[in-house]
Design goal:
The strands form 2 sheets. This protein has a two-stranded parallel sheet. The two termini are 20 Å apart. The chain is an alpha+beta fold. 45% of the residues lie in helices and 15% in strands. The protein is built from 4 helices and 4 strands.
């Protein structure tokens, strides 16, 4: 992972899903201290309600403007956490998904 980041133009530090919420602070810290890449936000949305809730701010309107902003390190990751939406969805999901969520959250408190 450490060597792979050198090929990346940016690092997604804001993702609107519950997994993004669970790892956001770690990802931001790792990027700030180790990767030092421009930040992006996203919501590739495995859940329809998450579409557009995570995004990248930059000067301009075109894909070319976005690319330039990433290359110049002037992007900003923003969004609204989809955690609440995800939690509602999770309550209706099978046991295996609940186990994944439990493991994700419990790992935050293990050292």
């Amino acid at each position: 992972l450490y060597f792979a980041h050198k090929a990346a133009d940016s690092i997604e530090v804001f993702h609107a899903s519950w997994l993004g919420w669970a790892g956001r602070k770690r990802t931001q810290k790792l990027n700030k201290e180790v990767f030092k890449r421009p930040c992006t936000g996203g919501s590739d949305a495995h859940v329809a309600k998450h579409v557009g809730t995570g995004y990248t701010l930059f000067e301009g309107k075109t894909a070319s403007d976005l690319y330039s902003a990433i290359k110049n390190g002037t992007t900003k990751a923003e969004g609204v956490s989809g955690f609440v939406f995800s939690f509602k969805l999770v309550l209706t999901q099978p046991r295996r998904l609940l186990k994944k969520i439990y493991n994700s959250f419990s790992s935050l408190f293990r050292r």
